[in-house]
Write a structure and sequence with these properties.
- By secondary structure, the protein is mainly β.
- The protein has one domain: Beta Barrel (OB fold (Dihydrolipoamide Acetyltransferase, E2P)), CATH 2.40.50.140.
- Helices cover about 0% and strands about 55% of the residues.
- A five-stranded mixed β-barrel has the order 1-2-3-5-4.
- A hairpin with a 5-residue loop joins β1 and β2.
- Part of the 30S ribosomal subunit.
- One of its GO terms (cellular component) is ribosome.
- Belongs to the universal ribosomal protein uS17 family.
- This is Small ribosomal subunit protein uS17.
- One of the primary rRNA binding proteins, it binds specifically to the 5'-end of 16S ribosomal RNA.
Length: about 80
Amino acid sequence: MPKRILKGTVTSDKNANTVTVLVERRITHPVLKKTIRKSKKYRAHDEGNKFKTGDVVRIQECAPVSKSKRWEVVEAV
């Protein structure tokens, strides 16, 4: 099964080896037929603390690294 890859913006890099990434997606409302934005934050593993707040990155699913980390940073966009 292929791993999901998402693109988002780093919102926090304060924790060691961890970044918080805000992923935003657009969906069409089922009744209003209006495009709305939904966002979700993911905690991703960042080995070496390479990425800083404001960077646009790609994250990929991985095996659980800790209680809240199930994603890893692949690359900067």
